[in-house]
Amino acid sequence: MFASNEIVLGLIFAAILAAAMSSADSMLVNASSAIVYDLGGDIFDRHDEDLTLYVRITTLLIGALVAVLTLNPPGLILTIVILAVSLFAGAFFAPVMFGLCFEDRSDPAAVASMITGVLTVFVVHPETGLLLDGLSSPAAGIVGVAVSAVAFFLVRLVGEPTRSGEPIQSD
Question: Which of 24, 72, 137, 169 sees the fewest Cβ atoms within 10 Å?
Fold first, then answer.
């Protein structure tokens, strides 16, 4: 009944496209902020009044790069998206989930978890596959999450946890 109604179908497709655009926008802003604030921390003064301008310029440059990359065949785009999601899962799933689940956090465990998750995805992903031949692309992310979780627990067992009320020390 709803499938034959063009207005309902239009609303459903608009909702799907809005969710996709919102996700893409969030990733673009997140990447730009990470580049300017985290990677550009030594270049830019964190109290600089032009920091917002730097983020906007970085957003424009990343957007232009993505627009150029979309001119290639869809197979490349799909490979890049799957690799990006696998890397994201390998880097952040275990530290975020375990950081929320445990009262005592361990900053070294989170860092070790992120590094091992990313390295594992790079090693086992079929496009960069150095180790496991025949593994599917999404499975590389799952393996990355598993290795990341193991690294988190191993470093957490060895290291001393930081109380949740204590501020994180930065050097």
Answer: 169
Query: Average per-residue pLDDT in the chain?
Result: 79
CA 88 to CA 141: how far, in whole Å?
A: 8
Max Cα–Cα distance, the chain, nearest Å: 62
Which amino acid does the sequence have at 70? T
Q: 18 phi and psi, to 5 degrees?
A: -65, -40
CB 144 within 8 A of CB 118: yes
CA distance 78 to 76: 5
For 115-165, the pLDDT digits (tens) are 999 998 888 877 765 665 656 777 888 889 999 999 999 998 887 766 555
Q: What is the DSSP string of the chain?
A: -GGG-HHHHHHHHHHHHHHHHHHHHHHHHHHHHIIIIIITTTTS-TT-TTHHHHHHHHHHHHHHHHHHHTTS-HHHHHHHHHHHHHHHHHHHHHHHHHHHH-SSB-HHHHHHHHHHHHHHHHHHSTTT-SS-TT--HHHHHHHHHHHHHHHHHHHHHHSPPBPTTSPPP--
| 137-158 vs 74-101: helix crossing angle, rounded to 10 | 30
